[in-house]
Amino acid sequence: MRLDRLLCQHPKWSRRHVLGLLVQGRVQVNQQVVHSPTLEVTAFDTVLADGELIQPGKAAHYLMLNKPAGILSATDDPVHPTVMDLLPPELAKELHIGGRLDRASTGLMLLTNDGQWSRRATDPERKSPKIYRVTLGNPIHPDTEKVFAEGIHFPFEDITTSPAKLERLSDTECRLTIYEGRYHQIKRMFGRFRNPVIALHREAMGAIRLDSNLQPGQFRSLTDEEIASV
Fold this sequence. Notes:
Distance between the termini: 21 Å
Number of helices: 7
Strand content: 25-35%
Structural class: alpha+beta
Shape: elongated
Radius of gyration: 23 Å
Order of helices and strands: HHEEEEEHEEHEHEEEEHEEEH
């Protein structure tokens, strides 16, 4: 929200009064004097005007979690445990998920209370790489790299996947980099070769890589560098 609009919500201040406060340097955002009425402020910013606290601000949370298998990527479910059940209740109630995983899949998940940040992190237009370790039921077909790099057409939606990079780790295991997140995309890509996905583990989203020190079910706050990468 623009700063002037936030201040104009005060019952005793008109727009002219608000502009006067800004010109006179009587408005602070995060303890810094500001003069611009068009400054964008969020719920995380502390705003004071004429010595009065207009908005206290709140703490922003950015977490990575190592999702175990069998846990739902959901905020609540009446039957199955969710990733939120792995967090302290007072923290979980503030957060939402940025980039879901299937119930059987494991690995990196991002959780935050910053909606703008999570939208950037998952925006398909950014073509941000997502890296997965994939275990397959059969040996990888010799043409898989070539077909994935060219893109695969999904006739039901009439779409073609973006070029993907496959790195073989063994006959039945690979590291796959994709740049989108369509419904069951990886399983459907390997389905072109009738090769079932046995296990799917997300290692990275963009520049954020799963911390190798995190055991399944554990989480930590993102570093300033990781947050800024989005």
